[in-house]
Amino acid sequence: xxxxxxxxxxxxxxxxxxxxxxxxxxxxxxxxxxxxxxxxxxxxxxxxxxxxxxxxxxxxxxxxxxxxxxxxxxxxxxxxxxxxxxxxxxxxxxxxxxxxxxxxxxxxxxxxxxxxxxxxxxxxxxxxxxxxxxxxxxxxxxxxxxxxxxxxxxxxxxxxxxxxxxxxxxxxxxxxxxxxxxxxxxxxxxxxxxxxxxxxxxxxxxxxxxxxxxxxxxxxxxxxxxxxxxxxxxx
Length: 235
Prior knowledge:
By secondary structure, the chain is an alpha/beta fold. It has one domain: Alpha/Beta hydrolase fold, catalytic domain (Rossmann fold, 3-Layer(aba) Sandwich). Helix content is 34%, strand content 16%. Helix 1 (17-25) packs across helix 9 (222-233). The longest helix is centred in the first third of the chain and has 14 residues, at 51-64. The protein is globular and about 45 Å long.
């Protein structure tokens, strides 16, 4: 199977290290790109880096690597990113997996779907230039083990603000006809996504799965996450 794993806000492709290792050991092909302005590409951040940039990043990887029959996985902020990719390149994809991710409808921005208190909290982290949101503490990602907290502290980078405020523009229904699965983490539940989870559970065209892991499941439970992704891909 071909897996393309898309990281969330403040992260980079580095966060998938252990999940990718597990999937490759099982014989799968895995790509873990980093979106513009983050991780090892943080030096490319500028006022024009928005949600459309992130979508272009992932589309470019798919096209450059000539990927097909692809399982596209998006964590957290990458929910609207993979939705945007599917809107353009559904013929290259097999299915979409949203890992504790934001589900943004066409015409909405990532920040707009959060409760008002979360929007206010995120707004207070914007830097003086109006370009970036500051890095949250590790507990916001459901991470508490010392080695994982230290890894996050070394690797997380400020997040491009425009990627949260630019609206998602889709030409087709969300998912563009592809099978969609939502994986919700449960240890702990990620509070900002509570109402979104309840909505997804009653949608007839979504599959619902739960994983006993923190919001950053790729750090806290990489083996279990890899097994679940493989099981979903091989259905």
